[in-house]
């Protein structure tokens, strides 16, 4: 049986798949395949390991043909996969929740600290040779202890980011589709409507999935409700924020700064963001630790093997055969 793998992954994925007697057909590169190359890669495959940059839609399922039984997305987010199309064709869909929680929460905090303490500007100053010594008023940032950390989406990653906020002595408020009462108690977090969260938070950290409801959740109006000193952190999905409105808000000092790991049209970044001082930009590094990417590779390979062998898989968005 053939497993199409759309990118070079940590080697454990290939080892597991080949160890199970499967043939790996890999797009053996760090750059994504063209759409045409992707469609030919999946032709006749029994299983697919794909990335969030690969659109798994009707056309791809057509190109794969009726033998395709499982698609495992190398991500927790599934916004690139047409789940209903997979279900209708009996293609199981797996993903990688859990193993990337801490890595992504750490990255949210890396961005937040870098913005709050002006690490990027300091680094540039030192490297440029223009640093003539420290001075009492040089590159003053913002303290976080005692301030309010606002979480949009208190799922696994949002809760892990909030836990770090508690460790930094911050108060936590959150919003989301539903209340998370156990997490509320554990994190001493207060549930508030989005509007109130935007108004009371010193940091707004986004951890919701990309859905039609969350697209441009943070638009010009939402940005206008935030504090002029507030920092926006996005490690979720780019389209949760209206990037053009964010550029305007940052330029006009409506908010204090932003730490962004995700963008509306990756890998294209709004050129307005690149020129701003109070912004730190990362190239979608949320899950990018050696340990986490290895664990994700193991998880997708094991999911593919389990579906093809009729075993059980922990994290399925669509069950084998499309479900009942
Ligand atoms: C990416 C992510 O998959 O899991 C997600 O939803 O956004 C990340 O883990 C990863 O960075 C590979 O692109």
Explain this structure:
By secondary structure, the chain is of the alpha/beta class. It has a 7-stranded parallel β-sheet with strand order 8-7-6-9-10-11-12, with helices on both faces. The protein has a 6-stranded mixed β-sheet with strand order 2-1-3-4-5-13. The radius of gyration is 21 Å and the shape is globular. The two termini are 25 Å apart.
Distance between the termini: 25 Å
Helix-strand category: alpha/beta
The pLDDT mean sits at 98
Fraction of residues in helices? 25-40%
Q: Element order, helices and strands?
A: EHEHEHEHEHHEHEHEHEHEHEHEHE
Oligomeric state of the chains in view: single chain
Q: Which strand-content bin applies to the residues?
A: 15-25%
Which terms summarize this structure?
324 residues, alpha/beta, seven-stranded parallel sheet, globular, binds 2-keto-D-gluconic acid
Topology:
Elements: E1 2-5, H1 12-19, E2 23-26, H2 35-42, E3 47-50, H3 58-64, E4 70-73, H4 83-88, E5 92-94, H5 101-116, H6 119-128, E6 148-152, H7 156-167, E7 171-175, H8 181-187, E8 189-191, H9 194-200, E9 203-206, H10 220-225, E10 231-234, H11 243-251, E11 257-260, H12 271-274, E12 279-281, H13 290-309, E13 316-318
Parallel strand pairs: 1-2, 1-3, 3-4, 4-5, 6-7, 6-9, 7-8, 9-10, 10-11, 11-12
Antiparallel strand pairs: 5-13
Bound molecules: 2-keto-D-gluconic acid.
